[in-house]
């Protein structure tokens, strides 16, 4: 950690920081993402920016420190300097451009301001154990560890290790997630370890791995500026990935083409040269329609297809049925829009394809991704600057911690299959244990298995499945019935309410390690403040428990964990913390210590046995349930700019909550008129699994027959409405993006619903 005195003179630094903070309001107004979404100043309590500036200028500069780190919100991978007195975050600002290759001088509103959660009164600072009356009380670490070891071992002895399960954390570092996978297999004796990637991009991983070989983005962020055209679908980019959204909008403003297909006219669509509103749940139909048009009109890249792909004839045959008339009938996408988008893709030399969960969170998400992979491949848009596929990752480390590090039921680190005898033998030798060759349960399957009596215990780290799981009512029931549940988190969240033991962890600002961002870039995370109370880093807790359960872990720092991991993981074989720090990040695959990392995948060959892309024929697919007379609306879910996931990090922020303190439902004006609903009215959404009451936002950004609701608040928990039984057959991803619901004006007493000052939240068009 660098003392400010070591960086500049006192006067220069004082004037520079104070000037920076006092100008933050004006800068926020200038930033594209803040102009579009409402300025950062508008989200903060009056004078907060200037209070921060005063705090900084009033400090003795000798007591202030500044350290660069990587953001702990989304996976764009922004880097910035954090100003602190050692205990409290006082301010942030973008770091030097050479240390921030993804974001440059830009940050989003959450990355810039939202750190009140670190010092929130709700932070867990001591372990909690449940007493004989069923109430939580504080305990020492020794007592808590004793209870955990006793509970885990009792289940192992009664039912075997396979009755245990573990949910790892995409918020934690790479090093910690490597240990979570190791802990599950070596200490607990189970392959039932998984993470939130199962709920979001596992369809991406499965689909891209099958076609190209790697289940990750093929591009670097710089490719967005080199593309002639960008094709986006299922991505509310400006709200879920604001800094990346800014780059895309600027690129479009410079005259490059932007095509957006989405059920909602999200803000990024306002910058598009073509926006097409689609019927949710049928993406592979219109994607196949684009592929058919390109093939039928000889617009595909014959040389690329011939030399670098297999399976083209099978794909050509499979898309024959997706005629313009059929596509329009199923998806509401017109023949003209199919032709326009297809010719935009075909007529530009460099096209980049981006998506998020709107394409993946379906019971046929893997097929959606394979259809998109076919489209990119037949047009030759892979392996050269400005081309490729980019699934925008959601949580800060879901690429690295959620996938690369192997806390997965079927893979070791680096996507090495546990069913492969050589892989299993390598890890059994390294970890000194026997590993079951059968994959364990995926996350959503864990709760179904618990219902069947096949899982009895769970160790949940940094996740909140009580809210985030589909059919959340069922997930909560299973958590309550779990014979032994341990939760490790910053807060006593909704899942922790069911726990037998709660262990206090620390945030990314209180520990050191690495994150891997959405373009495979491994970057440093540095401790900038001291841990709160007696809270510990996840890796320290895991090591303490492993040693109490008969193992001999002896890591003294996270760089040693990274060293062990890279020796077992070929795609990370050349990545060390020292190199990451010195070189400002490294992109995998990076095979040895002399390898420079890989900026762009597939420049020469694909990661397949024959080096070619294996195109996959994809047929018709539809949601697991369709609207009917009883449930006539299609519900899709998502995020908003000023909140983050289940709110653990954003709900303690006063300014964020002043602006956005509730979920809502978007409904088309014609539908609202038909049901007698006005803007701001309370309405009831009901599916076959549950119901919620939220205020309505009447807006034309959503199509007729479709409603949209965010996912951020426990009070309304939209996942009460979603389905946990209809899963993608390959990735086991649930269908968050499509549920059949009915909508009606709320008929109860409005005073019994905790929504005061109901206002539209995301703005109207």
Kindly describe this structure.
The chain is of the alpha/beta class and 765 residues long. It folds into four domains: 2-113, N-terminal domain of TfIIb (Single Sheet), CATH 2.20.25.90; 128-197 and 397-513 and 529-574, 3-Layer(aba) Sandwich (Rossmann fold); 202-391, 3-Layer(aba) Sandwich (Dimethylsulfoxide Reductase, domain 2), CATH 3.40.228.10; 633-752, Barwin-like endoglucanases, CATH 2.40.40. The chain has 29 helices and 29 strands. The strands form seven sheets. It has a seven-stranded mixed β-sheet. Strands 24-28-25-27-26-29 form a six-stranded mixed barrel. Strand 5 (128-130) and strand 6 form a beta hairpin. The longest helix has 19 residues, at 141-159. The radius of gyration is 25 Å and the shape is globular.
Q: Could you give the topology of this structure?
A:
Elements: E1 2-3, H1 10-22, H2 24-30, H3 32-37, H4 40-43, H5 48-58, E2 65-70, E3 79-84, E4 89-94, H6 109-113, E5 128-130, E6 136-138, H7 141-159, E7 164-167, H8 174-188, E8 193-194, H9 202-211, H10 223-226, E9 229-233, H11 237-240, H12 242-253, E10 257-262, E11 274-277, H13 283-296, H14 302-308, E12 309-310, H15 312-318, H16 324-331, H17 335-347, E13 351-355, H18 357-360, H19 365-378, E14 388-391, H20 400-404, E15 411-412, E16 416-417, H21 421-431, H22 443-451, E17 457-461, H23 465-468, H24 472-481, E18 484-489, E19 501-504, E20 513-516, E21 521-525, H25 538-548, H26 558-568, H27 577-583, E22 586-587, E23 613-614, E24 633-638, H28 654-659, E25 665-667, H29 669-674, E26 682-686, E27 691-698, E28 706-710, E29 739-745
Parallel strand pairs: 7-8, 7-17, 9-10, 9-13, 10-11, 12-23, 13-14, 17-18, 18-19, 24-28, 25-27
Antiparallel strand pairs: 1-2, 2-3, 3-4, 5-6, 5-19, 15-16, 20-21, 21-22, 24-29, 25-28, 26-27, 26-29
